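JOB MANIFEST
job_type = single_chain_structure
chain_count = 1
residues = 350
[input]
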Amino acid sequence: MTESERESENGREPDAEFVRVPVGYGTPEGINSAYVLPDHGVVIDPGPPSPPAFETLTDELEAVEMAVTDVDHVVVTHWHVDHSGLATRLAREAEATVHMHEVDAPLVGDYAESRPERVDRDDRTLQQWGVPESTRDAIAQTDTPTSMPDSFPVETHDHGDTVGGVELLSTPGHTAGHLALRTHETLFLGDLLLPTYTPNVGGSDTRLDDPLGDYLTSLERLEAVADEHGFTHGQPGHGTALELAPEIADVRAHHRERAAAAFESLSSGSEGDGGGGGGAASDEPGTTPWAVAGDLFGDLQGFHAKFGAGEAAAHLERLAELGVVERLEGSTIRYRQAVEEYPSPESLTP
């Protein structure tokens, strides 16, 4: 491959401070984008824990005349394995430090201990959302262990910390400890915004009580940083550069529309009376997130069931925080309308 061909494939401009490296096997969001910042000694989100991904990454380091040992810092935007999976291997071979937000760090640094806790928490949450046992079992079967080490040192951070001259921005929502990053020239977004896919909230991290509220607040933080420093574009964790203002506007409109649809799904009052689109009959009042997910997305299988149920739950919980719906506690979490007509708020943000 010639130098110009490599620049075209990886989206690198001759004077840019970073190199984008497409890595991994593809996810619903698309092929991952790792970022190499030679002048900072930083690699962001090195990719999933596979030999081909590591070879791709190290080949690109060589192409920009960086030895693996020139990497001082491996910054991971969030704990999902397609972003974090190579972090420990790269850090070990480079004798570098892994950096994460303090909330997400245990899911990588204490992998052997945290993984079964996460899997158990996910299953309990899915049960509370009304997801049937057979579907939960199928979800668990897709959630297989990786080759990440049982434990590894991870340096933890919070909003405003800097690593190798890169500022870390706390942007929870997609996960509880998600980070975006800023240099003087570039915003790196992780999965806060994506060019072809709306980041999941709810199913992507079941630790959050109000993931949609957190996510929308993170978008406001991103806007403020972009306005203050004059950024019009950002570099996402999947794909290539996106324009911030129209993407943020589209995502907000998407969530307003989905929240209204979730509200309308509650209109018939209870699953026992046939409401909620596909939920099992019940004498309990209200409708489960799983039943609302059936209305919003139709038949859901595998990890789509987890993400769909989580998406429905996130919108219902945001509406409950706004007083538009009422949350009902019981053997499962259920919701019912608290107002006769949906108020169509301009903003769902807390």
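[summary]
The longest helix spans residues 244-265.
The radius of gyration is 21 Å.
exit_status = 0
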